[in-house]
Amino acid sequence: MIVTDRKCASLNMEMFCKGGYISWETLVYITAEPDIKDHINSLTIVLMQETERFNKLLIIIKTSLEQLKKAIKGFVVMSEELENVYNAFLNNHVPELWARNAYPSLKSLASWVKDLIMRCCFIDNWINNGPPKSFWLSGFFFPQGFLTGTLQNFARKYNQPIDHLSFKFILLPYSREEAMEQLRTVKKGETIPMDQNPDAKGRINSLTIVLMQETERFNKLLIIIKLDVPDEGVLVHGLYMDGFAWDWDHMTVGDQLKGQMQANLPVMHMDPRLDYEPDLSLYPAPLNKTAARAGTLSTTGHSTNFVVTVHLPSSNTQDYWIAKGEALLCQISD
Asked: Ranges for the Dynein heavy chain C-terminal domain (predicted)?
């Protein structure tokens, strides 16, 4: 019955939502069923909000490009705003009109467009195929909303006060970077290759192999893994380590490798805990959306750049990493 509901909702979306609007009922059918308390999964609301934000941005991009095309041909007046868009194209910069309505980014125009396509593929895959095994945290327009939704699901399930909940961060020995590229080629109704289940004989499908290129000591070791969805919390990936690296031998943070600007953080399990107090041996790494180490406080009470403090296992003291200014990033500059 759930499969039928999903197919019906997907068909409804194709027929009636071509204008960029996806109805609430469609998202409910596609992403989650109500729990025993008739609560809709909080991540469904997050998906709805993310879809609206991306739709708004895409409409602005489409409208400005159409108007710019007409202005070049002389059909409409070349306004100052359109002229700024044109000049930004010549300099490979993101137009101010787009950046003002988009997520924080320091990328050039070419990289920004590629990143936007990847984000839309991530949201589209979630809508059509259901929640992924691991969420691309960097792909969210507003990642703080996703984290709050995860805590809210846990609070509703166990009747816990959400203001007493926080995350315990568990790093897993898996890499997930291939998943972002696979999102661009997956078709509706299919899962990305690395999320496909084993065959009838219990063997992992060859497409499920995750090619994890580790440090030079591992000499491009290939590890075959199958990522399981945790009972509580979520798995996230796509984060970068600015100024330090990950020691795969000891599963702790380590010094930056020579010639490496940003290293990839492994898949991370964000496990909600009640009144959790992290161990003092863990390094509290700030997670920022961009490499800019500054942000402003928005009307929602959240920073425009800072996301959350991630406590990482370390063999060195906190002062060692704080003095070096190490941090995590959702995206690199280019």
From this structure: 37-178, 230-330
